[in-house]
Design a protein that fits this description.
It is a single chain. This protein is mostly helical. It has six helices and no strands. The chain is globular.
Length: about 130
């Protein structure tokens, strides 16, 4: 599976998950880089801010709120709850999409930890999202 290339997810969905995980991990690089990439994938600046506020922030579809909830659950308890799985299925998400979502979250968990541990600085063209 290619996390950032071809997978079964709508282009917005991995970005929502990556931005949320970057925020939860305090990875300024991940958050700032994917806030920019997310805008190219159709997320507005307001939506990027709402991702940091969580699944109950205004404006999310049921599916997008469930994606954010899945990120939170994996970060907090290392498992997606039965309720979130059932909710994703009810929105029409396929088993492949649910697998792609979990693998995307997992990949960016590792990337966020590495970026934080190595002290990777923002690219010069990016502004810090955490400092806004």
């Amino acid at each position: 599976m290619n996390i950032m290339g071809s997978n079964s997810l709508d282009p917005r969905h991995p970005e929502i998950a990556i931005i949320r995980f970057g925020y939860l991990c305090g990875s300024d690089y991940e958050l700032s880089q994917h806030a920019w990439i997310g805008e190219m994938s159709g997320l507005s600046k307001a939506e990027v801010v709402n991702i940091t506020e969580g699944h109950s922030a205004p404006g999310w579809s049921n599916l997008e709120a469930l994606i954010i909830r899945a990120v939170d659950e994996l970060k907090d308890s290392n498992i997606v709850s039965d309720g979130t799985w059932q909710g994703l299925l009810a929105t029409g998400y396929s088993e492949q999409q649910m697998m792609d979502l979990v693998f995307t979250i997992d990949q960016y968990n590792m990337v966020s930890w590495a970026l934080n541990s190595f002290g990777v600085q923002l690219d010069e063209v990016l502004e810090s999202f955490l400092d806004q």
